[in-house]
Design brief:
The chain is of the alpha/beta class. Helix content is 38%, strand content 20%. The strands form two sheets. Strands 9-8-7-10-11-13-12 form a seven-stranded mixed sheet, sandwiched between helices. A six-stranded antiparallel sheet has the order 1-2-4-5-6-3. Helix 12 links the parallel strand 10 (353-357) and strand 11 (386-392).
């Protein structure tokens, strides 16, 4: 966990540990490369980190065509951008041993989330040469910030950033940041306490998947056509989908294949009355399949902020829908799926039901997956009721696929804050251990009739 990095008791071990932090997280070349990848405009203007020490960072904003305005001086907005990342690096240098979410490939339980909350810049004179941007955090402030972070508290820091060009001061800024362990962003008690940053991450992930669904699949077997997915994705989702699809070109086919396989499970139950969408996100099935499943009630389960986003998207559709939808707020980590549904008067455990557990298993650990799947069983009392779920192969999570595209995709998911933490080598055996029977398992490759080894790492399951 993060607290193991607090080694400030002895100066020599601390110096050694900080040097390891410098090499792994904040050395200028690495930091420049990671930030340029995460924020492409930084590469476009040729911004670079030039120096990092504990509590100090410096960067260079060149005077070039890309960074200047009509007068040939630096654009003020780009100076503010350089100040933002320079101050952020200086703050990150104080959190010894901790990677930054969104920049370094990392997991929530060992990373910090750092955000700019406010800024003010005073411009003294136009910048007419290469611009040096520096942030120096006083030692006593640096130590205080570090102690606070490693005590598990939120860090609020007001940092001064100075700009120099042609040997003179051209501007100064005050940048106000906050940082905290990423794992603390998730509400610990009560669904009403979701932080804005946690909500933003949640919505970004859902929009990204909607953006992938809006992409054109390559395989002829895919027939899914949903006019609502582009609206659900918005520009944000389409951009994220484009970035991740560049890393993993097979991504659209994989998502479309799982969507269509799930559709076939639904449409293959003539007496179907209820669908339980576990982690509904921005899945538009209730609208896309309403004409073919007019008598089905859709129970849409997700965190409150995601359900709110879902309703905001639906409200923007030009047409109304007669789909019978029941949004149900739930925190799957802290609440029971079984209790949430069986206490409702509008849910009938004896009616033909399909529990749709799509695109979720890889984000939960084994024990939570086991609990969710076990909790789903009492919902499936009717003989024709089914569970549909999907799993990635364990080698994906372990990084043993030896497929560069998969590695790059997982790195992109890490940067998005959506780490894969669970994979399953034998999904059928895992489902049996959860009490299921009559289990069918197909790889995406088998379903798509494709020989690409990437498709064989993803499996779709149907069980009673």
């Amino acid at each position: 966990m993060i607290l193991k990095h607090n080694l400030r008791g002895n100066s020599q071990p601390h110096l050694h540990h900080w040097f390891a932090h410098y090499q792994a997280h904040v050395n200028p070349d690495l930091t420049t490369r990671l930030l340029r990848k995460s924020v492409p405009v930084l590469e476009f203007i040729d911004w670079k980190v030039t120096e990092v020490r504990e509590g100090f960072a410096a960067s260079l904003l060149p005077l070039n065509r890309e960074s200047t305005n009509q007068h040939g001086t630096h654009q003020a907005a780009l100076m503010a951008l350089a100040a933002d990342y320079t101050g952020g690096i200086a703050l990150a240098s104080c959190l010894t041993g901790v990677p930054m979410a969104g920049v370094h490939p990392c997991h929530d339980d060992v990373s910090a989330s750092l955000w700019l909350a406010d800024m003010s810049v005073r411009f003294r004179t136009p910048s007419t040469g290469h611009l040096t941007v520096e942030c120096q955090i006083p030692l006593e402030v640096s130590q205080k910030l570090s102690r606070r972070y490693f005590a598990g508290k939120k860090v609020f820091a007001s940092l001064n950033v100075n700009f120099h060009s042609n040997g003179e001061s051209v501007a100064e800024a005050t940048m106000r940041y906050f940082a905290q362990p990423s794992i603390q962003l998730r509400p610990a008690s009560g669904l009403e306490h979701e932080s804005p940053i946690f909500q933003a991450k949640l919505k970004a992930s859902a929009r990204m998947i909607a953006g992938v669904r809006a992409q054109q699949p390559k395989h002829r077997i895919i027939r899914v056509d949903c006019p609502h997915t582009a609206a659900a994705a918005s520009e944000h989702g389409r951009l994220l989908a484009q970035r991740l699809s560049e890393e993993l070109p097979q991504l659209a086919d994989l998502v479309h294949a799982r969507t269509q396989h799930g559709d076939e499970a639904l449409l293959g139950m003539p007496a179907l009355k209820q669908v339980v969408m576990v982690g509904a996100g921005l899945d538009m099935r209730p609208f896309r399949l309403n004409a073919r499943l007019p008598n089905v009630t859709w129970f849409e389960l997700d965190l409150p902020s995601m359900l709110k986003e879902r309703e905001r998207v639906v409200a923007g559709f030009p047409e109304t829908s007669s789909a019978k939808r029941q949004p149900i707020p739930i925190d799957l980590i802290n609440e029971s799926l079984e209790q949430k549904l069986l206490t409702r008067s509008d849910f009938d455990r004896r009616a033909p039901t399909l529990v749709l557990y799509e695109g979720c298993s890889m984000y939960f650990d084994e024990s939570l997956n086991r609990r969710i799947l076990t909790d789903s069983q009492p919902l499936l009392e009717h003989p024709e009721s089914r569970l549909w779920c999907d799993f990635v192969d364990q080698s994906v999570v372990d990084g043993r696929t030896q497929i560069d595209a998969v590695t790059r995709f997982l790195r992109g998911m890490d940067e998005l804050g959506e780490q894969f933490i669970f994979g399953c080598q034998q999904p059928g055996e895992f489902l049996k251990s959860c009490g299921y029977r009559q289990i069918s398992v197909r790889t995406a490759g088998e379903y798509l009739q494709a020989s690409d080894s990437v498709y064989d790492l993803y499996r779709f399951c149907l069980a009673r």
